[in-house]
Design goal:
40% of the residues lie in helices and 15% in strands. Bound molecules: coenzyme A (COA) and zinc ion.
Length: 308
Amino acid sequence: MTRLQINEVAPRDGLQIEAAFVPTEEKVRWIDALSATGLARIEATAFVSPKAVPALADAAEVVAGITRRPGVGITALVPNVRGAERALACEVDEINLVMSASVSHGRANLRMTPDQSLEQFAAIVETVRAHPQGRDVFINASLSTSFGCPFEGEVAEARVLDLVGRQLALGVQGVTLCDTTGMANPAQVGRLCEAVLERWPDTPFTLHFHNTRGMGLANALAAWQAGIIRFDASLGGLGGCPFAPGATGNVCTEDLVHMFEQMGIATGVDLDALLAVSATLPDLVGHDTPGQVVKAGKADRRYPMPSR
Ligand code: COA
Ligand code: ZN
């Protein structure tokens, strides 16, 4: 059975919605601890406007500060050419372009329609490939609101397939389908995953779920059953898009790893090490997190019998 690849997005998706700024050196220590747990990739930050997302204003300092480990890809979210240039200067392994499948969320989040985002993508791909540091950088694209838009409601599967096709035609190498505000259900996830894998069997697809309505793990399982092996997840279940009303945390990394490992599906992640890092989150972000296994313990935890 193929090992899963978990992309830890808490340093980006998790922190972007936090009100309090986490100091740069604490972010660096945290990412270094995460990269020792066996995760395949870490989305370390976003090279976006510091006015739009003040929590990630130190993107360059964070990437420069972390210790690179062989086998752990460092990726960063990038909305435009300016962001790509900033990311390349820090020698990231991967850039994660972002656009919305729906017009309204694209406007709210990026001030771009899907067509305008695709124009940016074309310019970004050109910039990356012409850059001395860019030749080997993996170009991924995230498609927000792939399963529904908080402003418009349903997003048609045909629209998602069309946009994925146009991204790939521009030279994008991998695609992440994002359920930005937790609107997806497992039946819908299974259908869309089967559709993309049938059409593009050689493209690495990642699934990105938010647990806004409690369906995050069920959706991840449905995606795996359809053949998906790459998942975004966020430590402690932190996360959410600041420009999508009602957005809440991502599917929780340690809960996702726990579920798959309990099922006998290897993730490559040292769950105990991950739980230990998760236990430090309340100190890091200043509040409790929605993660469940960190509180309950793993399913094989045994309690002493109460004495009468
Ligand atoms: N990095 C740093 N600064 C950037 C930037 C980038 N990638 N892109 C734009 N900026 C700055 C510009 O320099 C400008 O600064 P100024 O006001 O001091 O002159 C300001 O941001 C606005 O730039 P503009 O080109 O007019 O873009 P915009 O206002 O249309 O903003 C985005 C578009 C996408 C750049 C901006 O809204 C953004 O970064 N949003 C964050 C989206 C996000 O992270 N969402 C959550 C994750 S999906
Ligand atoms: Zn997200």
